[in-house]
Amino acid sequence: MSDTARAVPPAAADPRSAPALPLTVLPARHPWRWVATAVVAVLAAMAVNALVTNPAWEWPTVAQFLFSATILEAMWLTVRLTLVGTAIGLALGTVLALMRMSRNPLLKGVSFTYTSVFRSVPLILQLLFWYNLAILYEVVGFGIPFGPQFWTFPTQNLVGPLTAAFLGLGLHQAAYFAEIVRSGFLAVDPGQREAAAALGIPQVRQFWRIQLPQALRIIVPTTGNEVIGLLKGTSVVYVMALPELFYQVQVVYNRTGRVIPLLLVAAVWYVVLTTVLSVLQWLVERHYGWGSSRADTPPPFLQLLRSARAARARRRGATR
């Protein structure tokens, strides 16, 4: 053996035999995230300070009217308009979506025409049509089509202001719900239905176990947004002098002259109702989102609460 081969140490000849050095894991730094958090925190503190310290908001007046019987009755009417409008819209919208996906050209054409017309005409105009239906048809009859009628009712008695509001909101919303439901079912890969048919799974089970759960993951978030929009859109029924929340607030501040506090009362109740609907939407999304990343996405306020709890737990662990 030569002298050069004797000079090479065994560790250099085989690097895998060298002892492994301990690795130090450093946490990732996010300086700009902390800067953005500080800026947003300062702006939020300024907004809260402007709301609390400015006497022009008249918070004692807000507290006086926030739970008054008049405002609570108006708020309950707003909730009823939202619930009934959503129920009519979802039921009719689902039927319209199925008609649009049908292979029958008549059903498809009727669904397309309904959706186009009701999405094109403003909601306030539709409400006025339903409110004045008695001018067009004095009597509403039930019987054989183009034949004798067995029961007839005066339209003025059958379609009052509240019924006209329910019909106007529900029929208008059905056009939007139809497109939401249709988009949800179209998003499901048709190959899955073909594979289920090849495996001999019945069509009813294909719909309930394969198509519907996947479609609902897409339908539920958009439907939640539409319901929240409908809640705020109920204020349009003021044209029929229905005492919903916004209309009643206007009546009160015209009588008392307290414009800003009464508007703030309406805003507070709209925020509360919208928050409740958002929480319900998150629960439904989580139910139908099992198995996907959507199920593990809590709302921002819950994320903030969990982060605060985690930081408190880390601080307690560090002090022990």
UniProtKB/TrEMBL annotation:
Chief site of localization: membrane
Database matches in Pfam families: BPD_transp_1
ABC transmembrane type-1 domain boundaries: 75-281
Topology with respect to the bilayer: Multi-pass membrane protein
Species for this entry: Kineococcus mangrovi
Keywords: Amino-acid transport, Cell membrane, Membrane, Transmembrane, Transmembrane helix, Transport
Transmembrane segments: 32-52, 83-102, 123-146, 158-178, 262-284
Location relative to the cell: Cell membrane
Keyword Transmembrane helix tagged: yes
Cross-referenced InterPro entries: AA_ABC_transptr_permease_3TM, ArtM/GltK/GlnP/TcyL/YhdX-like, MetI-like, MetI-like_sf
Nuclease is among the record's keywords: no
CDD domains with a match to the protein in the record: TM_PBP2
Lineage: Bacteria, Bacillati, Actinomycetota, Actinomycetes, Kineosporiales
Name of protein: Amino acid ABC transporter permease
Homology family: Belongs to the binding-protein-dependent transport system permease family.
